[in-house]
Design brief:
The structure is a homodimer of 364-residue chains. Chain A has 364 residues and is α/β, with parallel strands linked by helices. Helices cover 40% and strands 14% of the residues of chain A. Chain A has three domains: 47 residues, 434 Repressor (Amino-terminal Domain), CATH 1.10.260; 128 residues, Response regulator (Rossmann fold), CATH 3.40.50.2300; 147 residues, Rossmann fold (3-Layer(aba) Sandwich). In chain A, the strands form three sheets. A six-stranded parallel sheet of chain A has the order 2-1-3-4-5-11. The first copy, chain A, starts with 18 loop residues before the first helix and ends in a 5-residue tail after the last strand. The N terminus of chain A is likely disordered. At the A-B interface, helix 4, helix 5, strand 2, helix 6 and helix 11 of A face helix 4, helix 5, strand 2, helix 6 and helix 11 of B. The first copy, chain A, binds a DNA duplex (16 and 16 nucleotides) through helix 2 and helix 4.
Chain lengths: 364, 364
DNA sequence: CTGAAAGCGCTTACAG
DNA sequence: CTGAAAGCGCTTACAG
């Protein structure tokens, strides 16, 4: 192998300016510079014109204190850890964006950790975050993915979850599933569609139960019997089960399972509107309904859940529930800030609820 | 306001164990513990059984060196900065995931920065990353978004871009657009579709030109005239232009623009296959083609670009080009590692090319 | 009003 | 083979 040709080493990325550099320029000690730049104990500490001079120098030299040194000295890191299953996951990518956006508003940065890429990554990421001294951790890893949430919370009390992790001491933000069910149903009822079908993915999950309660409440509010609602609780016979991918919560539902849904809800129950567990199931249903000659929304209306941009691209464009990720993100950052300010046991309720909102397109 | 009820302060998240703690336990000095745990200068430094004892203690006490202290002392931060336009953007969310996955394999962490959330964020994020002492920066901000890339590269030479930033000294990973064009065209030609239409978004962009060259090369390889290819170069007359959103590169193409594409490529040119600029345009075309009674793929085939999961949900499922983000991510991390190891002016080529791959579904 | 000094936890020459 | 010590850049009591 030939010796690498010597190349001109570019000027080392200009050594950053330190407190001593300013002190030397200003002809004072670092203590003075420090107290001026930190603004501690008001202005009483330093002569006004000295302070002026120091501030000017700092600006001029573009001084930025070393976060590393500050942190070692005991200051906050101004870094938050963000645990996700996979950043590419459609259910989380927008939440990632909005969380970082909020974190940045507080002058902080976001350290990300994909936990579904390999077993044990959840715990390893949490350890890394903690040893780096993050100010708090956001855990938006869907409950279907593994991870020791209890240990996480014990080791980092300033943790906020997205969706209930099922721990007594956890602070979390959740989608109001009752409101979601009610809003979807109300939207269908408004157009006279009283026979409703709900295609659940996992009927045992609390979220499904709450949505069903919401749908029933909407029916009851119009004095309609609960029998107007039929629930598809999963396949029977030979139909393949409704199941998500291993690494994401994308749902790929095979045709026989979709037929099973359609047979039960549209053919048997004669539903005028279907509420689908999420936009992916809804989109798959749209395709299968068209293949079977059932028109949407004329024969049956379809409402999704998530308001993924996918909704714009399917045919017909899908009416869906927007989960208002930016509100959830705002609430999560606010919650963690309060934990930082007032200690890890906040007086406010631990469960913060965000109400989804119907976005009307053409499918319902 | 009532005084907050005093609540039991939970045990402070166990003070992490330091080098001195181990030293005290082991009855040696910190220097010895340090050299054992860092394994510097081989084992010659310390008596074997002392080393044993120290290693055992470290394991037992679950010792993790403070990255902050190490960094202050001059070690690498083991943190990489990742500049994105918006983490929720469909074109980037999977790249974010794969980059973090690769970074983690190297024992490092990823700091994320959304730059499209507000003006000036690109520069502010870059500053933050640099002042935190990141080992390198990945910039996957699409060129349509603002940001001073030249200054970024000057201040942090260990920067790797996704797609050519147009700077002479930049190292970047790019999609081989020529191969993309050729592969799409070859796929159409294989099924006897020789009349091809290409719907560009921005015909002035180099990427579009390269893809066109690739399509022409595929035609030439079969001794077909270049006139078999028609290029839709944007709307004329009243049709609304093809344009992306402000904060993402999602494309919402209005119906009149889609009609313009269809009129020019399908009606006038009688194309048997359309190559779309991306999956979003392709999906919109699928819908509009169906509305006009043109069958896909029977009357005209459609090929997308990106292989977004959207492809599975549109009707018919879209044949597309997978950009192999995991390969791009691997190449980006490898490139930055070489810059770290061998200095910022690597001997290897600065442009690293990734070849996309056709994923066949039903639209072509 | 200002400066000298200790210390955060680690690494690493240097002296025994 | 081992330990005492300096120093990374900052903050903050403490002494003038």
């Amino acid at each position: 192998m030939p010796a690498r040709a010597p190349h001109a080493v570019p000027a080392p990325p200009t050594k950053s300016v330190r407190l001593v550099d300013i002190a030397r320029e200003a002809g004072v000690s670092v203590s003075v510079v420090g107290s001026v730049l930190n603004g501690s104990r008001g202005n009483s500490r330093v002569a006004p014109e000295t302070a002026q001079r120091i501030n000017a120098l700092a600006k001029q030299l573009n001084y930025r204190p070393s976060p590393t040194a500050q942190q070692l000295r005991g200051k906050r890191s101004n870094v938050f850890g963000l645990l996700v299953a996979s950043a590419g996951d459609p259910l989380t990518s927008y939440l990632v964006e909005h969380l970082d956006e909020e974190v940045v508003k507080h002058g902080c940065q976001t350290l990300i950790g994909n936990t579904a890429v390999a077993p044990g990554r959840f715990e390893a990421c949490a350890d890394e975050f903690i040893s780096r001294g993050v100010d708090g951790i956001f855990c938006i890893v869907h409950s279907m993915f593994p991870g020791d949430r209890a240990k996480l919370l014990a080791r980092c009390p300033n943790t906020v979850f997205y969706c209930d992790p099922g721990l007594p001491d956890a602070t979390f933000v959740e989608i109001n599933q009752f409101a979601a069910g009610r809003a979807s149903a109300e939207h269908l009822l408004q157009s006279g569609r009283t026979r409703i079908g709900f295609a659940v993915a996992d009927p045992a999950a609390a979220s499904g139960k709450q949505r069903i309660r919401g749908i029933k409440a909407a029916l009851a509010a119009r004095r309609l019997p609960a029998s107007e609602l039929a629930i598809y609780k999963g396949p029977r016979g030979s139909a393949a089960p409704l199941r998500p991918d291993e690494r994401t919560v994308l749902w790929h539902t095979p045709d026989d399972a979709l037929d099973d849904v359609i047979d039960e809800l549209v053919v048997r129950h004669r539903a005028a509107g279907i509420i689908a567990h999420n936009d992916f199931l809804a989109s798959a249903l749209l395709k299968r309904l068209r293949a079977r000659g059932i028109r949407v929304p004329d024969d049956v209306a379809v409402v999704g859940y998530l308001n993924h941009y996918l909704c714009e691209y399917v045919d017909p464009p899908l009416t869906s529930l927007d989960l208002r990720h930016h509100l959830a993100a705002k609430a999560m950052v606010k919650a963690v800030q309060e934990m930082i300010d007032h200690g890890p046991a906040p007086p406010q309720p631990k469960a913060i609820s965000v109400e989804p909102m119907v976005v009307v397109r053409q499918s319902a």
